[in-house]
């Protein structure tokens, strides 16, 4: 196992500045040699945050995955300063490899302000995380290089309240699932930009699972092909990813080889901290 998987992720997300609005970063190793989408999302967000006043934090992102990234090639992050208003700032980030974009994303930032306040509440009677089996326990005994990779390098502990989809499809079909998630160690910073970027990083692991669950598929299904197409995320309140978070997920639609996954993210005490939507290519063997 990596001596500190979370530290490894934090190091990769720490993009290096080339000039005022340009940054560069490396990638985590990954089976198949393709960049993990959550990684480039998080790096693009953090690059944009480095160009914004420190009292403004990201409250939303809207991004498109344009090409598969290569883990062995550096990524350049070019930030465009679109607007700096009295309360909000907007940045467009292009993540580039070989001179072409692999991700294009707009991030909006806001300073902390008072205002109207309400929020949905999580479902009742959800088992606490210490009563739910960890994906690390599910995958640890599996003799497969992909299972070994995720158990050894995953920076997050995922705990599916319903049965996980790693090894086989679920017994029943539903477009709903709930997952507890927490970083595998303390994050050595209170910086909200970092915690929100780590939430973006982590959620990409599960966003399309309700689509698979609805159609009787698992990650090991022969012939399955899945890829993220676009991603939207809203942070409603401060969040810490080194505390347990509950993802309440759904799949409202699948059509034309595309599926939509949504999630509401709650703290363990029931506070809604984020909402997420992601559409992906989901192709199953006929």
UniProtKB/TrEMBL annotation:
SUPFAM superfamilies: Thioesterase/thiol ester dehydrase-isomerase
Domain Acyl-CoA thioesterase 2 C-terminal positions: 172-281
Gene Ontology MF, one: fatty acyl-CoA hydrolase activity
GO terms classed as biological process: acyl-CoA metabolic process; fatty acid catabolic process
Pfam families: 4HBT_3 (PF13622), Acyl_CoA_thio (PF02551)
Superkingdom of origin organism: Bacteria
Reactions that this protein is recorded to catalyse: a fatty acyl-CoA + H2O = a fatty acid + CoA + H(+)
Keywords: Hydrolase, Lipid metabolism
Acyl-CoA thioesterase-like N-terminal HotDog domain sequence ranges: 31-110
Quaternary structure note: Homotetramer.
Similarity remark: Belongs to the C/M/P thioester hydrolase family.
Official protein name in the record: Acyl-CoA thioesterase 2
Organism in which the protein naturally occurs: Cellulomonas bogoriensis 69B4 = DSM 16987
Lineage, highest ranks first: Bacteria, Bacillati, Actinomycetota, Actinomycetes, Micrococcales
């Amino acid at each position: 196992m990596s001596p500190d998987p979370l530290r490894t992720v934090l190091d990769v997300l720490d993009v290096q500045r080339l000039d005022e609005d340009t940054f560069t970063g490396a990638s985590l190793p990954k089976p198949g040699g393709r960049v993990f989408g959550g990684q480039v999302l998080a790096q693009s967000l953090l690059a944009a945050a480095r160009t914004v006043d420190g009292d403004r934090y990201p409250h939303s992102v809207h991004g498109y995955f344009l090409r598969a990234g290569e883990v062995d090639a550096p990524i350049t992050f070019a930030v465009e300063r679109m607007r700096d208003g009295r309360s909000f700032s907007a940045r467009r980030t292009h993540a580039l490899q070989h001179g072409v974009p692999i991700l294009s994303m707009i991030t909006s930032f806001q300073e902390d302000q008072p205002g109207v306040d309400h929020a949905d509440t999580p479902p009742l009677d959800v088992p606490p995380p210490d009563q739910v089996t960890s994906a690390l326990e599910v995958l640890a005994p599996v003799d497969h290089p992909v299972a070994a990779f995720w158990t050894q390098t995953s920076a997050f502990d995922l705990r599916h309240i319903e049965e996980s989809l790693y090894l086989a499809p679920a017994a029943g079909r539903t477009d709903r699932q709930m997952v507890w998630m927490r970083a595998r160690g303390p994050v050595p910073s209170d910086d909200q930009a970092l915690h929100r970027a780590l939430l973006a990083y982590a959620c990409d692991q599960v966003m399309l699972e309700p689509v698979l669950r609805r159609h009787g598929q698992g990650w090991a299904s022969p012939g399955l092909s899945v890829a993220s197409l676009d991603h939207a995320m809203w942070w409603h309140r401060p969040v810490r990813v080194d505390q347990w978070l509950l993802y309440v997920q759904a799949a409202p639609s699948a059509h034309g080889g595309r599926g939509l996954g949504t999630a509401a993210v709650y703290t363990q005490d029931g506070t809604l901290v984020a909402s997420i939507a992601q559409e992906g290519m989901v192709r199953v063997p006929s």
